[in-house]
Specification:
Length: about 375
């Protein structure tokens, strides 16, 4: 069903369109009228605009990937991911317990209350021993190649766009507009007829056929997210990491790179030490000696660059997947977020800071105190 805003009157889709400048005149009036009587909605929109402006400056036109988008987010029976995995097991004549698939998804947090994040599609099949690969920015030809190799294929789509006129009488039940909220199994692609045949767990049909154009429009909203499943020899593996070349980092994040690189080396060395490795002028696997078993500052620049590149690509990947790092300092954005915390109805203060006579407000989402750094073991129910 459509997600609602805080006042349960304005849909999240209309709010998103308003913030992006794509709303209609009627929607603009709806938003303005609602804000007149709803202070909380006004604050949400103000903070959203601040965040959007901040992200806009930092994004440098990079394309975000919807890793945390929820498959089945608009469906009350929101288990389309698990249904697709069951369908693949049945096609391969593999016995399974339907309840176990659901229980595992919930217990392992592959599935959330409102759906399954895209990066968790295929987790149960992994458990069954399948080789599962997840990729963005794919093409229909990639689907065709996977099917030709005998792979099973799951794609994430905008359910409303895929259904189109077939569900026009029920279209109000779907959130439409660049939201990858559904997954289907692709069965075949016909390049001559320019059609794609899919298994849709929400359809009463055993198969549904769509034109290339309609399928492509719905698939594009997930940034062409493709999940392939097979039992092939791993020697066929060709790495295809997410392209982060369009992500530009600010100077303070570049500085963060060095800290991450050094800590990564410390973790590596500690693990090797636990396995019995020690320093040696040359690598000797028999003696478990390695010349890199030294402090980071003593590493050759070539080895440091390896850690730096890993750290830099990790930071870029976080941003590419829609996450952001907000440095705790005196910035307008940070102060606005802190003000939201301080102005909540039930103000909770850090118990560790109180010992020193300092009142530090904390959020129910905080794991560590922003000021003193102590881990917060508090009853979250006090925030309700």
């Amino acid at each position: 069903m459509k997600k609602k805003s805080l006042d349960d009157k304005i849909s999240a889709e209309v709010i998103a369109a308003y913030l992006e400048g794509n709303s209609t005149a009627a929607e603009n009036k709806e938003i303005v009228d609602a804000m007149m009587d709803d202070a909380e909605l006004r604050e949400v929109l103000r903070i959203s605009q601040l965040v959007d402006e901040d992200l806009c400056m930092m994004s440098n036109s990079m394309e975000l990937l919807p890793m945390t988008a929820l498959a089945a987010a608009c469906d009350e029976n929101n288990y389309c991911c698990q249904e697709c995995e069951k369908y693949i097991l049945m096609r391969r004549n593999i016995d399974f317990d339907p309840q176990e698939i659901l229980d595992d998804a919930i217990q392992n947090k592959w599935h959330k209350e409102d759906g399954t994040p895209l990066h968790n599609v295929g987790r149960y099949l992994e458990k069954c021993g399948f080789v599962v690969r997840r990729q963005y920015k794919c093409r229909i030809v990639d689907i065709e190649e996977a099917l030709d190799k005998g792979d099973d294929v799951i794609v994430a789509v905008d359910g409303g766009e895929l259904l189109g006129d077939r569900m026009s009488e029920k279209i109000e039940d779907f959130v439409i507009g660049q939201i990858p909220d559904h997954v289907v199994v692709v069965l075949s692609c016909d390049s001559n007829k320019r059609t794609v045949t899919v298994y849709d767990p929400n359809s009463a049909n055993s198969e549904d056929v769509y034109s290339y154009e309609q399928f492509a429009d719905a698939w594009a909203d997930s940034k062409n997210y493709l999940v392939t499943i097979n039992l092939k020899d791993m020697k066929t593996y060709i790495p295809k990491p997410i392209d982060v070349s369009d992500v530009k980092l600010e100077d303070d994040l570049t500085e963060l790179r060095e800290a991450i690189a050094e800590n990564a080396h410390e973790i590596w060395a500690l693990e090797r030490m636990g396995q019995g490795w020690t320093y040696g002028p040359q690598r000797d696997d028999a003696k478990k000696e390695n010349p890199c078993m030294v402090p980071y500052s003593q590493l050759p620049e070539k080895e440091k660059d390896f850690d730096r590149n890993m750290a830099m690509d990790t930071i870029k990947l976080l941003k590419k997947l829609g996450y952001d790092l907000i440095k705790r300092e005196d910035t307008e954005l940070y102060n606005e977020l802190l003000k939201r915390i301080r102005d909540v109805k039930h103000v909770i203060l850090c118990p560790h800071c109180l010992v020193d006579g300092v009142e530090t407000p904390i959020s129910k989402y905080d794991i560590f105190c922003n000021r003193c750094g102590h881990k917060l073991d508090i009853d979250k129910s006090v925030f309700e």
